[in-house]
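Reopening this ticket.

The earlier resolution said the output was attached, but the attachment link was broken on my side. Pasting everything inline this time so it's all in one place.
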Amino acid sequence: MAGKSLRRFALLISLSLLVAAGCNEDALEDDETNQSADENGDPSDSNGADDEKDEEDDEKDEEDDEKDEEDDEKDEGDDEKDEEDDEKDEEQNGEDPGSDDELAFLDDINTMGMWLWDPTGLLDNAGGAKDELFTFMAAPHGHEEYAIDRLFMEARGYTYVDPNEEIRPVSWDPLLDPDLQPMMRQFLQRASHQGVAVEYLAAQGIWLATDEYAEVPKQKCRDVVTFNLTTENVEERFAGVHLDIEPFTVTSGPYANEYFENPGPGGYNVEWTERWHAIMESCRETLDEYAEETGHKMVLSIDVARWAYYDGGIYEYVNRPDSPVDYIAIMNYYDNRPNINGDPSFFYGDHDGMNLVGGVEENLEMWDQVPVMFAVETGPPEIAPAEWSFYDNGYLEMFEVFDEYFENYADTHAMGMAVHYYHPTAYQGLDP
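Inline output:
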């Protein structure tokens, strides 16, 4: 009995040891599993970490999107600023060099020009002379509808000599004198802001008398370009060159009446005419080279007499599609009194002793290849006979002629009116 009990006890002990060993092995496996999980990550724990990482990535993407939107807005702002800068540059430096805005006036019947021969006191505004000029141009005698938008300005001062005997010497030069150039630029910029284009005006009949004299106007064209190149601001530049070469006025001095001697076919003096052609060609080339260099188109214009179509040497040279000039200003100096046929002389010309000469109708018919501006005279009797000038008629009667011209010739190649000239004894001081 006792032995049997001992065997049972031994068996229980063995079973207990086996159970204990099994539990320890399970525990060891659990420890290994836990260690492996710690090393490799529990799958359930890894999924949670990935979710957190995805959320972080999403937030980062949202932040990147917001930054992209901010960058886009900044780019748009930069683009707008660039456009504003471009507009500012155009305002400062004038119109787009590639545009044709400089020539738009050639198609405008309402263009109003005016000659100004005496620049004394204008650049430094002595006695308010400059202010007075700009006020007048904005509304001549209080009439804004006839505001001047094109000024032909003799911008240099000269020592007086007989213009039929020798070349006028320059005494005061805002084109080439560095001390005077800033005032000239300020004047031109003010004109630009008021909508007035300024053409440099130069004149003398004896330029055609000799080869040496003919170099003078060529150099004047080069001097204007030299001045314009002193500034990048187009508003501070001359808009063109306006030449008033009247050889038929040389009736005294050493070259008196030479223009009418040795005439060429259909024209007047051969040598004088050739020099006139050479002046036009030189100035045209100078202005074209300047335009190619800067993109700024300067016009070349000339004054011609109301009967200039009789001068074949000039007429045939100018009246062609490839004319060297951009337009002509016809000095159609009649005060519109009735001619021999009872028609208004400004429009239908007047009798010169042999024929009816001049007038808007005839000149438009003859000058059919170039834009034409018609001019009126307002000078006193010592400048022009009464039948040529509105000095005695007054500006109200002259304005009636303007109105008729604007109304009846808008559909032609006529391009506006011009008044000779700004001075207290002429247009500036004209009575009603």
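Reporter confirms the inline version is readable. The radius of gyration is 44 Å. The chain has one domain: 111-429.
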